Amino acid sequence: MYRRILALALLLALVLTGCAQAPASVDEACVAATTYPIWQFTCAVTEGTGLRVERVISEPVSCVHDYALSVEQMKILSRSRAVVISGLGLEDFMADVLPDGERCIDASDGIETLSAEAHDHDHDHDHDGHGHDHEHGEADPHLWLDPARAGQMVRNIAAGLSGLYPAYAETFSRNAEAYCAELDKLLEDGRAALSGLSCRELVTFHDGFSYFARAFGLEVAAAMEIEEGSEPSAKEIESVIRLVETEAIPAVFCEENGERQTAETVARQTGAGLYALTMGMDGGAAGCTDAIYHNIDTIREKMAQAKASGCFAVA
Fold first, then answer.
1. 182 phi and psi angles, rounded to 5 deg
2. What is the CA radius of gyration of the chain?
3. Three-state secondary-structure class, residue 55
4. C-alpha to C-alpha distance for 157 and 151, rounded to whole angstroms
5. Taking a C-beta distance cutoff of 8 angstroms, is the pair 176, 155 a contact?
6. Minimal CB count within 10 Å: which of 27, 190, 252, 287?
7. Contact by Cβ (8 Å): 88, 143
8. How does pLDDT run across 257-310, given as a tens digit for each residue?
9. What is the C-alpha separation between 59 and 35, in angstroms, rounded?
10. What is this structure's pTM?
């Protein structure tokens, strides 16, 4: 709730500071994209059109559960002809300032989703309020880590922009299909690279890798999301430790921009290796496809390495 109050306060500030001037007009050539994966997809779709794509969230983040917009970010949203969102509640913190109607393009529209609480295992873990309570809704929003679903997002963006810029519709469609071909190859390459894994169970200390796991034939045996400033209960940690030991899981994975203290505790207690995966949200030189390739390579190499050595290693 406080995030919405802050967003409204920022919007009011913008209105008050501009009350002596004519309202800022929408820049017809400006398209806003909320997160780095969505920005990358939108840039790919609009290539060659002359449209300018501005990214709203530009700093490295693990997730945006408690994010608050700055004045400059509010300005990007207000001047853009279209705003492309990831959807499924990921942008709930900015819901009050997103445009209505066709100007807001939801990249997740119509895509089959997984539950935010659902994993591929039968190991139940007790939660005492210290973990993340999935404020972004019941559906898991991390679609972009599955190349097939990422392709659907790209096509949704192309379709939405075609309604606003019909003169570029053919270019949008052509660009989208070219990018989807890259994603198809990524899916094929990843499945081949991971086909030889003897252990296909993942223990992650971020709850956003379910789509990735499903896409590449892996199983999320446990996923623990830790809110900043809070700690999981001893019972939760013990449950994960017991799982890692019982299933002889050789490695556990944290998110590169996320909390890692709990993951280090589990790795130290079990002797499992600890390595970092990425959500592709950091906005660095590596794009979303590179982030998925990074995760594939990390899991393939580190799972085998940890199993062979049996020793604890921190990425």
1. -65, -40
2. 21
3. strand
4. 10
5. yes
6. 27
7. yes
8. 888 999 999 999 999 999 999 999 876 656 789 999 999 999 999 988 776 665
9. 10
10. 0.85
